Amino acid sequence: MRATAQARRASSGSDPRHQVEETVRFMEGALPGGVAVGNAFSLDDISVFAIAVGLPSGHGDIMNERASPRAPDWLDRMKARPGVAAAPATPNHGPPAWSGGAQISDTGE
């Protein structure tokens, strides 16, 4: 039953792994200037960071220095930004996703 559901998702384009691959491909194409959109850091970078931060731990075979060199480089630069680095120190936050405190499932569960 589970394999059938996965096959249906893959054929419909709603397969989570396919969606991750498409997201990373988009990031690779959008990052030649070093930021998500345009020529300067913007709200777009923050939005993409919120989605992309867990990808290396959950989908390291898709988002890594060899398969997608721009995306991990951009992610490291985002993590080094003062506001991003300070965010885990603010009250009422759990561990940052990039610390291994969160996992992304490709099964939708």
Molecular structure report:
With 109 residues, the protein is mainly alpha-helical. It has six helices and no strands. The two termini are 15 Å apart. The longest helix has 15 residues, at 16-30. The chain is 51% helix and 0% strand. It has a single domain (2-99), classed as Glutathione S-transferase Yfyf (Class Pi), Chain A, domain 2. The chain has helices at 2-12, 16-30, 43-52, 55-58, 70-80, 82-86.
Provide a quick synopsis of the model.
With 109 residues, the protein is mostly helical.
Proportion of residues in helical segments: 40-55%
- Name the structural class: mainly alpha
Q: What is the CATH level 1 assignment?
A: Mainly Alpha
Q: N-to-C SSE series?
A: HHHHHH
Please report the distance between the alpha carbons of the first and last residues. Answer: 15 Å
Total number of β-strand segments?
0
Describe the main β-sheet briefly.
Answer: none
Q: Roughly how many Å is the radius of gyration?
A: 15 Å
Domain count: 1
Low-confidence stretches: 102-106
Question: What is the count of DSSP helices, taking H or I runs of 4+ residues?
Answer: 6
Instruction: Name the shape in a single word.
Output: globular
Q: Mean of residue pLDDT?
A: 74
CATH architecture: Up-down Bundle
List the helices and strands and how they pair.
Blueprint: H1 2-12, H2 16-30, H3 43-52, H4 55-58, H5 70-80, H6 82-86
